[in-house]
Amino acid sequence: MSSVGVASSSGSVRLVSACSTIFAVLLIYYTLARFAGVDYEDATQILPPQIQYVIFTIPIVGVGAVFAVLGFVNGTVRASEWLLFIYLTAMAIVSVLRSDFAIIPSTISFVVPLMGIWALGLAPSPSLLNGLIYFSLPLGALSFLVGQNLWGIIPGFANDEIPWRVSIFPGVADTAYFCVAIIIANVWFSNGVLRRATTGLAAFFLLFTVIRSAAIGMMMALIYLWLAGKQGFRTSFRRWLLIAAMLIGFIVLILLPAFLSLLLPAGINIPFVNQFLFHSEQGVQGAKGLSETVYRGWLWAQHISIFVQHPLFGIGSYDLNNLVDDRILGNQHDYAGTESLLTGLLSRVGLLALLLFAAIIAKLHQAVKLGEHAAAASGIAMIVMLISHGGLANTYNIEFLLLASGLSWRTSLMSRLTDKRVSESPG
Known about the structure:
The protein is mainly alpha-helical. The protein has 18 helices and no strands. It has helices spanning 3-33, 49-73, 79-97, 103-119, 126-145, 172-188, 192-209, 212-227, 236-263, 271-278, 286-293, 295-309, 320-323, 341-349, 353-370, 373-388, 398-406, 413-424. Residues 1-8, 39-44, 282-292, 326-337 and 411-427 have low confidence and may be disordered.
């Protein structure tokens, strides 16, 4: 290898090392940001939503744009990043043509950081993840004491109909998926007492947030980690069969409470089980209660109905609360947070959404094909989030950032460049 080549490779390693440090700082920043804004009306808002959007969106978009440019300049962009770029370009053109300018900022803030993070293969280290949860615990306790967090970190004190519910962040779903990323990292990468203690701590919070979709996503990730290296799953085709089967099973499980409510004897009343299945300690109470157990499936049906009517480019930006027929649920829900990002995009942008889906699948396929099991497990958990809690799918949300960047675990550009430099060095 020529001296110029060695210097170029060394420069690339230093560049990615610097970007990794910046990314680690961003993860700390966005962990803190989770305590600065609350999505619940009866909790304290530290910052107005408009200010939150500016100070939380600009850093990740700005840094993500720089990362993306570096990825394109250094030739490290792969199929997933090219698909994101095509999706962004197509969305900008369509949005301008139909004067739907509101969708452009959200598209940029979602796509550009992913392009940069994936292009440079940036991923959180397990030690950083462990530091984040221990760093967040006292902040979670403090946020409860000042009234920002409704649940706190100790069971039995929640301002909720389920008193034993807990949460580190002021949002229970945020905490649940944050813990999923930490569990995956510790199960796969870390060893020793700290690993077991951190895994147990994260599992405790995951269980007691009572977010069943996150718990199911965690089980799916663990099943993949366990089976992917087995003799029967050595090919990427069989691994994809496993992933497809689990995702179909997940959708069935999400819809299962409606069927169970019809099959279980009326006298059965187990509060913990009822909360997981029906989001109420009393279980299902009448037709109205039954409708509320299936509202996710109902939302998906609304999205698909809109998509079928406007398949090419969707209908653009809209507020689902104002658009759909509310007679089923009686306006009991704010649909935005629990919309499926995948079906929601189909209704908003039509077939263009398939470009984004293809980018995610391409990134996941990279991990599956290379046998990067932790990265694939993180991708599976991220897809579960996209299906069940689309409102969390923002690059300024720490839980989404961790799972999305987790797709680069063990496939990081730093590892590739270091391995290449070692293998090509003279002697």
